[in-house]
């Protein structure tokens, strides 16, 4: 399986099953998509999704697909035969399908939900080929601290990179300069300091990380 980032903005995700798993998947997709959860009962009240209480029979499925026009469906009921029918209906319509009760034998259009770490727009995802979700969860927890403040570093280097492009700095020199900034412990420390000041004071304007990055870039430009 190959990981890809999929833009779900303005798309609908239709989740069948309102148990622990259906609600977890719904929360995941609701970070970006409009989510509709259909189930006979719900374990959580999801303010991020529309929850429709209904008992499903296989004959109802085409109607739910027609009304929601989903980009992706999640089959997360505890009824294996119903999940199978949901998967078949999605395949027939060329709609992506996540089957929560299977780890193999996936058909075309079938996707798995990885364990995900996010800091703003910086995302890391872990999968195990479906074999060991508990390992995905464990590794996700280990990776979490690594991504702390990564979004601020992405923002800072995006600015530096754009400036170097505007100034016509050759690509190989630009690469060395950006790498030196992302690898600098001193810039990471300054970001950490500034962000925690911002978290507590709100209006703090950080310039230390930016100044440090500029110094590093200047060193690389002089050297190369
Ligand atoms: C194939 C996949 C399909 C999919 O759901 O997309 C799938 C399938 C199944 N999961 C099962 C069980 C568990 N799943 C978890 C947890 C997570 N499961 C997630 C993804 C995936 N699970 C996809 C593969 C991802 C990969 O490649 O690794 C995570 C990463 C993402 C998420 O769900 O958000 C999330 C952690 C999120 C986080 O914390 O970051 C735990 C741990 C726990 O609950 O503490 C257990 C109990 C331990 C165990 O059984 O291993 C069962 C058996 C059900 C049964 O026995 O009835 C099946 C079905 C089967 O294996 O056949
Ligand atoms: N992918 C994953 O991460 C995991 C997947 N699973 C699998 O996912 C399935 C669901 O797990 P849980 O959410 O813990 O189960 P659960 O029993 O809490 O929830 C199942 C939901 O499906 C609904 N449902 C079942 N038949 C229905 C019907 N005909 N019409 C409407 N709603 C119906 C129930 O009302 C319930 O809300 C399990 O059977 C298991 O195989 C379990 C753990 C983790």
Automatic annotation (TrEMBL):
Catalytic activity entry: precorrin-2 + NAD(+) = sirohydrochlorin + NADH + 2 H(+)
Record-linked Pfam families: NAD_binding_7
SUPFAM superfamilies named among the record's database cross-references: NAD(P)-binding Rossmann-fold domains, Siroheme synthase middle domains-like
The keyword Oxidoreductase is annotated on this UniProt entry: yes
One record GO biological process: siroheme biosynthetic process
Keyword terms: NAD, Oxidoreductase, Porphyrin biosynthesis
Cited Gene3D superfamilies: NAD(P)-binding Rossmann-like Domain, Siroheme synthase, domain 2
Listed pathway(s): Porphyrin-containing compound metabolism; siroheme biosynthesis; sirohydrochlorin from precorrin-2: step 1/1
GO MF annotations in UniProt: ferrochelatase activity; precorrin-2 dehydrogenase activity
InterPro entries according to UniProt: Met8-like, NAD(P)-bd_dom_sf, Sirohaem_synthase_N
Coiled-coil residue windows: none
Enzyme Commission number(s) of this protein: 1.3.1.76
Protein name, per record: precorrin-2 dehydrogenase
Organism of this sequence: Haladaptatus pallidirubidus
